[in-house]
Amino acid sequence: MVGCIRTALALLAGALVAGKVFAADLFANTPDLPEILTATRLQQAPAAVPGSVSVIDRELIRASGARELPELLRLVPGMLVVPQNGNATTVNYHGSSANQARRLQVLVDGRSVYRSGFAQVDWNDIPLAIEDIERIEVFRGPNTVSYGANALMAVVNILTRAPRDSHGSRLKVTRGQRGIDDWYASHGFGWNGGDLRLSLSGLEDDGFDHKADGSAFRDSQRLSRLNLRLSQELDERQSLDWQLALKEGSNQVDNHYQPVLPIAAQPWEQDGDADVRARDFASSLRWSLDLNAEHSLYVQGNVQQWERLRQWRACEGAVAFSPQLRALWDSSPSYVKALSANLASGRFVPPAGTSAQVALASQFLQQAAASFDPSTGVLAHSCGLINEDVRENRFDLEIQDTLSLSDSLRLVSGLSYRHDQADSQVYLNGARSKDTWSLFSQFEWHIDPHWLLQGGAMFEDDNSVGSSLSPRIALNYLLTPAHGLRAVYSEAVRSPDMFENHADWQYRVRDLRPSALGQSEALYFASARGPGDLEQERMRSRELGYHGSFAELGLNLDVKLFYDEISDLISEPLQVYNFTPSNDNRLRLKGVESELDWQVTPDDRLRLGHAYIEFDASHRIDQRLTPRHSGSLAWLHDWGRGWSSSLFYYGADSLNEYRFERTDLRVAKRLQFGNHRVELAGLLQQRLDDEPLGWEDNNYDERQVFWFSAELEL
C-alpha cells in the first residue's frame, strides 16, 4: 500500500513540475473545459468536482465495440464486472457482494433503474441500446447526498443522445460466434422547436458454453427494445423532454433444482425449461424552466414497471409437502436437516430434540415409511408446477431548483417522492410497498479564485426503515480552473430492500402429479422470513485527490486516495435453506486509483485506469470479492483513409477468486457515399487467462470470440 501511494504521489508531483510545457499549461487559463453533471447536480469543471468521476464518452463507446453496458464499465478504475451467467451480470465498485448490485445507484437520464424490491440492476435487460448513449459518467465514491440511499459506493449516470443530435436514419447489424445476432435501427427528425428520435434494437447470444462438470450451460438471451425520446421548446424559457422505453425478452435459466429427499432420478427428472420472460416499461417527463440567467428549476416524473415471469416444474419426495415437516422447519431448520440426513442414510429415526419436535418427526416418518419402496430405497415422488413471477412498479416525482446567489455562490436544492411496490407470491407472499420522501440541498462557494468549499446533505424518510441524514463536505484548491486538489468527507447509507427485510419466501406448488399425501396443491416444507428489523448500512468515506487537464498536451489525469468504512453491513447470502440477513458485518477499504486520458496526437489516444485496494472484511464472502489490483488500458488510432483501430486490455488479479485478463482488438473502415456513410468493423476478444469468468460454471470452449458489424447512416 505504501509503495502504491508513493507511486501515485510521485506521478502527481511529476505531472505538476515536469518541465516547461507542463508549467506553461498549468498556469494558463483553459477556456473550454468539459463539464461534469453527476457529482453535485451542478455543472462543474472536473477540477472542481468533490470526488472522482470517470467519463466514458461517445468515441470510447464506439471504439470499444461493446455489445452490452457492463463491458463499458470495465474502463472505470475499481469497477468490477462479474457475470453470474450469460444473461445476468453484476457490476460492483470495490467488490462486496458479487450476487447483487446492492450498493450502486444507476441512472438513465436521471431515472433510477435500481430495483429496490430485490436490490438489483438488471444490466443486460435495461431497455437502452448502446448506440443511443452519448456518455456515461461514473462518480466513484458515496453520493447519497445527491441521489439518496443506494448511492452508497458509486453512481453510474447514463446520458443518452439528445434528439436534436440524432437526425437522420441509422441501421446496424452485428453477427458473430457464440450465437451473437444483434440489430439496431433509428430515425430522428425535427420541426420548429422540437425534435424526436425513435430507435428499435435487439440483442441475442448463446451465453457460456459449458459448466464446470462439462455439461452444456442453458443461459442464452434474446431481447427486443423500443426507445422514443421527444424534446419540445415551449418558449424561450420552457421546454419538455419525454421518454418512453419498452423491452421484451427471454433469458434461459437452468432448472438446477436438486431433490432434498431420496427419490428416483429417472424417469422423474424435472423439466429443463425454467426460462425467464422479461418485460419492462419506463416513461419519464421533464419540464424545465429558466426563470432568468441565474435561476432555473425542473420537475420530473417517472413511471416504471419490471416483470420477470418464470414457471417451471420440479420433482420431490411426496412427503416434502407434509404439514408436519413444514411445522418442524418453522421451529428449527437445523432439525429438519438432521432428519433429512437420517432419511438419506435409510434410518427412519427422529433426531434428538424437544418433545414437540420428536412427536412431529415421528408422524412425518410414518408418512415417509408409507411411501418408501425398500426394493429401490427411495421415496414416492411428486412433480408440481412452481410460479416464480415477480412484478415491480415505481412512481417517483422530483423537483429541483438551481440558483446562483452571486458570481461565487451557487445552490441546488430539491424535493422528491418515490413509491415502490413489489409483488411475488413466492418471495413476498403477495405485494409489499414502501414510500420514500427526500429533501436535498448542496452549495458551491468560491471563497476566492483558488479556494472552493462545497457541502450539502440529503434527508430521507423511508417508511420501512425510518429517516436518515447523509452529509458531505469538500474543499478544493484550484491552482487554475483546470487543476485542482481536493479533500472530501462524506457519509452515505443503503436501505435494506423489501426482500432482505420482509421476505416471506414459500413455494406453493400446483398441479402435483401424482398427488402428494392426497393434495394436488401444497406448500413445500422449506420457507424463509425476513427479520423485519434490519437497519440501514452506513458508510464513512475520506478522499484526497487531484485532477488536472493539460490542454497543450491533450492530457487529463486523476489520482484518488481513499479510506472507506462500512458498518451494519448485510453480507449474508439469501438462500431459502439459509436465510439469515443481519447488520453484523463490516468492511474497510483503502487504496489508490488513477486514471489517465491522453490525446497523444490528433490520431492517437491513450487511456489508462488502475485501482489498488486493501480491505478488511468481517464476512468470508466479502473477503474474496475484491481484487488487490485491477485496471484497463486502451489505445485508439486513426490510420487515415477511413481506417481506424482500437486495442483494449482488461485485467484483475482476482475476479471472485479467478484471475481475469482479456484483450479486445477492433478494426473499422468508414466509407462515404455522398451524404451516406457506411462503417464496417470487426472485433476480436482474446482471453489471456485460462480460468472461468467470475464463477466456476462460466466457461467457454474457445478463449477467443469474433463478431462483425455493419452500420449505415443516411
List the topology elements.
Elements: H1 2-17, H2 20-26, E1 52-56, H3 58-64, H4 69-72, E2 79-85, E3 88-93, E4 104-108, E5 111-112, E6 133-140, H5 144-147, E7 154-160, E8 168-176, E9 181-191, E10 194-205, E11 221-233, E12 238-251, E13 276-292, E14 295-309, E15 311-317, H6 323-331, H7 333-344, H8 355-370, E16 372-373, E17 378-379, E18 381-387, E19 390-404, E20 409-424, E21 430-446, E22 451-462, E23 466-480, E24 483-494, H9 498-502, E25 504-513, E26 522-529, E27 537-550, E28 555-569, E29 574-575, E30 578-579, E31 585-601, E32 604-617, H10 620-623, E33 629-640, E34 643-655, E35 658-673, E36 676-687, E37 704-713
Parallel strand pairs: 4-7
Antiparallel strand pairs: 1-6, 2-3, 4-5, 6-7, 8-9, 8-37, 9-10, 10-11, 11-12, 12-13, 13-14, 14-19, 15-18, 16-17, 18-25, 19-20, 20-21, 21-22, 22-23, 23-24, 24-27, 25-26, 27-28, 28-31, 29-30, 31-32, 32-33, 33-34, 34-35, 35-36, 36-37
